[in-house]
């Protein structure tokens, strides 16, 4: 008899699979396996379950749902031991299955979080992060937001900005690496929550580019190794969580200088060591050229930050674009450099180490 509405025998089937997967995750010291549910396992599964029991009990006269309590225990007992042996017999396949199910679970949790956020937001006015210094113009095509590292740099940027069209959002240190973090950590990260709220366009299934509050999202970090790392983390976030912003050219990298060269009343800025050496040759005479290295954006006077990095008439921006024809290569590179497998990064370093002439550490 076909039980189209399931019943206790299907409950035993799900229990055996769920307990087996979670036990394997515990065996592999993978705590994220605990968030997998039976639905994550069976939602895309095609299976045929045939059970023979004495005096079966059904719900209602149509007998479409089995209610015999012993069916749960019988099916779970019969399947669980065999499933455990299957997983232990092929660890590589078992690990692949576990990884797939964890990704499904994290995706489910992320969608639920987005629904809860939208549901809560519908009953209240738009809430913007307290650290955000917003601009006054509401036309997204004319506005831009600067993502800066730390309150010190944020203070300089707030003084240097055009209040009408430029907003500033300071971020505390290095944000979460979304390519290697779990969905649970992503949901709890306040810096990313603030960034998502400031942009206003949502993420995942709730993403709507028409609600983006700024036409340009500019990553502005220090011109050193730590700044490059923070910029990499932010680009990874946009690539993974807000890919359409990259596809449509909304994401940019600011290019702040690293050096200021001064001789008398003349000052020029240099982007890096090579640029500094080139521009040193521009100075004439025997007067000493003072070279100052900016420790960070927070050390730059607001006037200098505006002149070199924030003024649209004088600055240089790099547009970060995700090209369709390079999608596979980009996805592989992001996974290699930012993903959960350190051995991939080690292999990349081994391959390219000999081509590096100067390392800034």
Tell me the layout of helices and strands:
Elements: H1 8-27, H2 38-42, H3 70-89, H4 91-121, E1 144-149, H5 150-160, E2 166-171, H6 183-188, H7 190-199, E3 216-220, H8 225-241, H9 243-247, E4 251-254, E5 259-263, E6 266-270, H10 273-280, E7 290-293, H11 302-310, E8 317-320, H12 327-338, H13 342-352
Parallel strand pairs: 1-2, 1-3, 3-4
Antiparallel strand pairs: 4-8, 5-6, 5-7
Helix pairs in contact: 1-3, 5-11, 12-13
Keywords:
alpha/beta; single chain; 46% helix; three-stranded antiparallel β-sheet; Rossmann fold; 3 domains; 361 residues; Ribosomal Protein S5, domain 2
Question: Which parts are unreliable, with pLDDT below 50 for 5 consecutive residues or more?
Answer: 119-125
Helix/strand structural class: alpha/beta
What is the share of helical residues?
40-55%
Order of strands in the sheet with most strands: 2-1-3-4-8
The H/E string reads HHHHEHEHHEHHEEEHEHEHH
- Count the E strands: 8
The number of helical runs is 13
Backbone shape: elongated
> How many structural domains does the protein architecture include?
3
Tell me the Rg in angstroms: 28 Å
Characterize the structure shown.
- The protein is 46% helix and 11% strand.
- With 361 residues, the protein is an alpha/beta fold.
- It has 3 domains: 8-120, Ribosomal Protein S5, domain 2, CATH 3.30.230.10; 132-256 and 306-321, Rossmann fold; 259-293.
- The strands form 2 sheets. A 5-stranded mixed beta sheet has the order 2-1-3-4-8, with helices on both faces.
- The longest helix has 31 residues, at 91-121.
- The relative contact order is 0.09.
């Amino acid at each position: 008899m076909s039980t189209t509405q399931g019943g206790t025998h299907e409950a035993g089937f799900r229990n055996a699979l769920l307990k087996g997967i979670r036990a394997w995750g515990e065996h592999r010291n993978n705590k994220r396996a605990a968030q997998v549910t039976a639905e994550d396992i069976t939602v895309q599964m095609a299976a045929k379950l045939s059970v023979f029991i004495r005096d079966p009990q059904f719900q209602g006269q149509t007998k479409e749902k089995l209610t015999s309590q012993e069916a749960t225990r019988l099916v779970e007992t019969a399947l669980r031991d065999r499933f455990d042996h299957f997983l232990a017999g092929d660890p590589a396949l078992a690990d692949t299955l576990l990884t797939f199910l964890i990704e499904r679970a994290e995706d489910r949790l992320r969608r639920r979080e987005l629904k809860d956020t939208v549901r809560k937001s519908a009953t209240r006015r738009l809430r913007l992060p307290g650290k955000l210094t917003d601009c006054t113009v509401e036309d997204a095509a004319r506005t831009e937001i600067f993502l800066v590292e730390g309150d010190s740099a944020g203070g300089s940027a707030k003084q240097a900005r055009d209040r009408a069209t430029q907003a500033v959002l300071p971020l505390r240190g290095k944000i979460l690496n979304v390519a290697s973090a779990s969905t649970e950590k992503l949901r709890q990260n306040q810096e990313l929550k603030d960034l998502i709220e400031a942009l206003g366009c949502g993420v995942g299934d709730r993403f709507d580019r028409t609600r983006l509050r700024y036409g340009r999202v500019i990553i502005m970090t220090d011109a050193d190794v730590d700044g490059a790392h923070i910029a990499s983390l932010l680009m990874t976030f946009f690539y993974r969580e807000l890919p359409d912003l990259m596809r449509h050219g909304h994401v940019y990298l600011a290019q702040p200088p690293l050096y200021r060269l001064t001789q008398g009343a003349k000052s020029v800025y240099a982007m890096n060591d090579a640029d500094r050496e080139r521009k040193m040759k521009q100075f004439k005479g025997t007067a000493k050229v003072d070279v100052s290295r900016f420790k960070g954006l927070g050390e730059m006077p607001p006037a200098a930050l505006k002149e070199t990095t924030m003024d649209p008439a004088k600055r240089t921006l790099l547009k970060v674009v995700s090209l369709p024809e390079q999608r596979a290569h980009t996805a592989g590179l992001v996974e290699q450099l930012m993903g959960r497998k350190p051995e991939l990064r080690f292999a990349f370093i081994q391959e390219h180490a000999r081509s590096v002439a100067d390392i800034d550490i």
